[in-house]
Amino acid sequence: MIDPAHLETLAAVLRTGSFDAAASALNVTPSAVSQRIRALEDRMGTALLIRSLPVEPTEAGRRLARHADDMQLLEQSLRRDLGQDSGTDRPTIRIAVNADSLATWFLPALSAQDEMIFDIVIDDQDHSDALLLRGEVAAAITSRAEPVPGAVLYNLGALRYLATASPEFRGRWFADGLTPQSLARAPALTFNAKDRLQRDWAARLIGRRVAMPSHVIGSSHAFVDAALLGLGWGMNPEALVKAHIAAGRLVALAPDLPLDVVLYWQVSRLTEKALAPLTRAVRAAAKTALLST
To answer: Which terminus of the chain has a smaller tally of CB atoms within 10 A, N or C?
Structure first.
């Protein structure tokens, strides 16, 4: 059995970023922290930490730290079920969320969960389930309609995207319409290498794939700002651009061709019961903000 104090120390080091800060948080000496980490690494037979500033986990260290957080969450849930004080220590819940959900509807679901600390990992909805599969997060917003092994899946609804640009950009690049030739010339906006929304929408529009020049901008709000400034066109969540469209600062390039991305909440079966209040809050927030599917 892994020593709980050693697991707690590993989690504290990664949460605070250093051995000294973890020692202060745990009210022990830095030497004690070093000894516990060394003993845990000997017990597991592998390095768990990269001694950088801040300290970073190895793959094994990240998985073990998640295990420590899971154990703390389950203990808190058990105390609550037994009618006991859940204690002052709040478990850290690591969640994978796509940037557009975080920018539009997801945060209200967290605001009432005062017994938890959240570690939000930003990842594309098409790829976040891999983090859950590897045990790196306890729950994830995904676009995958099938649950990963060991997880429970809930349908949340669809986040609607509109292809948007400034009126000046449309006049300059799409004066002759949205054609394969104009899309191949006009600068697009892309969140990161995983972002396929622009390519998928363009393929639906013209019936085939087209190579497009693209600015890479990894921020939902900066994505909108870039469109406002005429830097490029991109797929923006309707909630972030509808006021700009109404005011004429942005235009929908093809109003009758939105792109609806269906989202799901996947949560580890191990901690499903303990995370039930969070799941209810996420589903309620989604019901208010997303399209029913």
So the answer is: N
CATH number of domain containing 33: 1.10.10.10
- Name the one residue in this structure whose structure tokens are 């190579």: 211
Q: Which helix (H) or strand (E) covers residue 236, if one does?
A: strand 234-237
Domain housing 13 = 1-64
Say how far apart CA 35 and CA 189 lie, in whole Å. Answer: 49
Which amino acid does the sequence have at 64? L
Q: How many other CB atoms are found less than 10 A from the CB of residue 112?
A: 13
d(CA 133, CA 150): 8
User: Is the whole-model pTM more than 0.85?
Assistant: no
pLDDT in tens, 176-232: 999 999 999 999 999 999 999 999 999 999 999 999 999 999 999 999 999 999 999
Residue listed under structure tokens 């927030």? 285
Helix (H) or strand (E) holding 142: strand 139-142
Which residues face 119 on adjacent strands? 94
Whichever domain contains 230, its CATH number is 3.40.190.10
265 contacts 279 by C-beta, under 8 angstroms: yes
Ranges of the chain with pLDDT below 70: 80-81, 83-89
Nearest to 57 by CA among 71, 72, 69, 74: 69
Nearest to 68 by CA among 22, 20, 129: 22
